[in-house]
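#struct-pred
JK: can someone run the complex with adenosine monophosphate? inputs below
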Amino acid sequence: MSEIAEKKPTKPVVLTCAQPTGRLHLGNYLGAVLNWGRMQDDYECYFGIVDQHAITVRHVPAELRENTYSCLAQYVACGLDPTRSHLFAQSHVIGHTELAWILGCLCPLGQLERMTQFKDKARKQESVDAGLLYYPVLMAADILLYNAECVPVGDDQKQHLELARDLAEKFNHRYSETFKLPEPFTSKVGSRIMSLQDPLAKMSKSDPNQASTVYITDRPEEIRKKIMSAVTDSGSEVRAGEGKPGVTNLLTILSACTGRSLSNLEAEFSGKGYGDFKKAVAEAVIATLDPVRLRYDELIKDRDALQAIFKSGAEVAQKTAYRTLAKVNRKVGFVERPR
Ligand code: AMP
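RT: done, structure tokens with the ligand placed:
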């Protein structure tokens, strides 16, 4: 591999990774993806669909392939812009697994065995493969390969980000300063959206009651049905707060979809019943998601367009990855690859 001249990014680098697992829901959109889209002007954004992570649990190959295309189409439909961000599939870029190997040689086994997510997933399986244990090391490599300064992570991934910081520090200490220490990116805006059927639980795709979850690809009539049958609270007052988890959730959704404040919305619906209020929420969600769905429907049929996005994303990602890998290999003591 040839050394490529050092490139100085002008904007801070953000890496976001998503597993290609099925459909995105309203919580993903309002709580995360909308914000990732807003970051594209201020950061150099790498966005990886991490298909190599997806095989750490049992999977069906044909489904993984379809989900990877679908995942790309959904994120683009939600506003991730391939002309401003680098959207790539992890398996298209040489370097993730190579760096993971090197980082793994600095990582105590016990630290991996203590990872909460590993313990949770391992408990649910009859036998545990090494890939599942190694998952956080691969995630550390995903981040460090691009020298990402910030990484948007949910609570369940914070421990993995800590490991990435530990491994970066270890590498820097053992071989000399190489990696920046990545910081978690927690956005000030972004709403936590709760289940429509149990407003004390987060909206989730794994909810067995599918009436709880609005998907970004749901048609208007499905959205209307789900919102109109959402659980509300005793009384008929439309206000957020104590004793009103159902109404608070619907107000949060309406506020996120319209950009209006909760107090402004409370004033509008003062004296009106839940029926009018829910209708307004349903129409606002439809107005927000309809353009997303239409864009998705178009994109998912256009395999060539999706391939072209993967190609251009992987080209940029690969250049950065080679640059990091060349530096790392040299510091570790591997001989230079003959030209
Ligand atoms: P997941 O679907 O758990 O892989 O999460 C993907 C992203 O969406 C993460 O940044 C989560 O924090 C965010 N997210 C997932 N569910 C919700 C929700 N119900 N409300 C807000 N954000 C969510």
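RT: quick notes.
The pocket of adenosine monophosphate is lined by residues 27-28, 31-32, 154, 192-193, 202-203 (CB under 6 Å).
DSSP finds 13 helices and five strands in the chain.
JK: thanks, will look after standup
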